[in-house]
Amino acid sequence: MPELDFDGAVAVVTGGGHGLGRAYAGELGRRGARVLVNDLDAEAARSAARDIADAGGVAVAETSSVADPAGGEAIIAAAVDAFGRVDVLINNAGVGRPKDFGDVGMDDVHLSLSVHLLGAYHLIVPAWRHMTAQGGGSIVNTSSSVGLFGQKRSAVYASAKMGVVGLTRVLAAEGAPLGIRVNAIAPVASSRMAADVYGKLDPKLDPARVAAVVLALAHRDCPVTGEVVSAGGGRLARILIATTDGYFSPDLTVEEAAAALPSVVAGETAVRVPTCAMDEIDLIRQCFPDLDGFPMPLR
């Protein structure tokens, strides 16, 4: 199959000085993108940019924080000043503070939200303006299986990462007529943040295998938008947010609901995959025969 190139594209990678972000930035540079490498660690950002340049690519380093709106504006402005446009935005910057919920303080909450969820907003808002004006672009956000499926000692992190899923879904719908694709990655890779979480699996979790999926999502020819893709160790898979057919009674009572709940959550085989909230609401409409010809309008 032909190699995917990013010739002429400008890519912004946050948290690009270490781990996954560095893998993304390096591969983008190798494939012809001009890369802005953002990282709070100035030396790491400069080192990653030098590696790209030494390999024949073009890159600049930038050290603003994604945790505040001014930082997000500065990062995107630096890319536009250096290269004239922004075609790819990879929101990768992250921070981890695993704690039992009883030990969580509001400083933990504010830090995680400001980096993971608000940090995505801080970059997307200015990038969206440029992508809209130039006729399109690609955004890859970073979610996590921790947010989608849960994990002890990760309430704050999970909250932020699930918020990224909702943001991704909505922006994909709004971005489609503008030529802007928005997806999210749920990465599994050896990293400083993961530490020894993966045990004996860790050596098989090369960040390059996640970078392969991120670049596929970011490429101008990718037809996918609004998806959350799990990636790690060479495996990639679609993560679904779905609903079962459930239980229906037109005069549902508290007692009926209590009796039905165990079977409703027991893993029915009939699974629906709504494309948006109105699609899920339409499953209620389908329970009423008199509304058979009146599907919920998608928004």
How would you describe the overall organization of this protein?
With 299 residues, the chain is α/β, with parallel strands linked by helices. It has two domains: 10-238, NAD(P)-binding Rossmann-like Domain (Rossmann fold), CATH 3.40.50.720; 243-291. The chain has helices spanning 19-30, 42-54, 69-83, 106-134, 145-149, 155-175, 207-218, 254-264, 277-285, and strands at 10-14, 34-38, 58-62, 88-90, 137-142, 180-187, 228-232, 235-238, 243-244, 271-272. It has an eight-stranded mixed beta sheet, with helices on both faces. Strand 2 (34-38), helix 2 (42-54) and strand 3 (58-62) form a beta-alpha-beta unit. The longest helix is centred in the middle third of the chain and has 29 residues, at 106-134. The mean pLDDT is 92. This is SDR family NAD(P)-dependent oxidoreductase. Keywords: Oxidoreductase. Belongs to the short-chain dehydrogenases/reductases (SDR) family. InterPro entries: NAD(P)-bd_dom_sf (IPR036291), Peroxisomal_Beta-Oxidation (IPR051687), Sc_DH/Rdtase_CS (IPR020904), SDR_fam (IPR002347).
Protein topology:
Layout lengths: L9 E5 L4 H12 L3 E5 L3 H13 L3 E5 L6 H15 L4 E3 L15 H29 L2 E6 L2 H5 L5 H21 L4 E8 L19 H12 L9 E5 L2 E4 L4 E2 L9 H11 L6 E2 L4 H9 L14
Parallel strand pairs: 1-2, 1-4, 2-3, 4-5, 5-6, 6-7
Antiparallel strand pairs: 7-8, 9-10
Helix pairs in contact: 1-2, 1-7, 3-4, 4-6
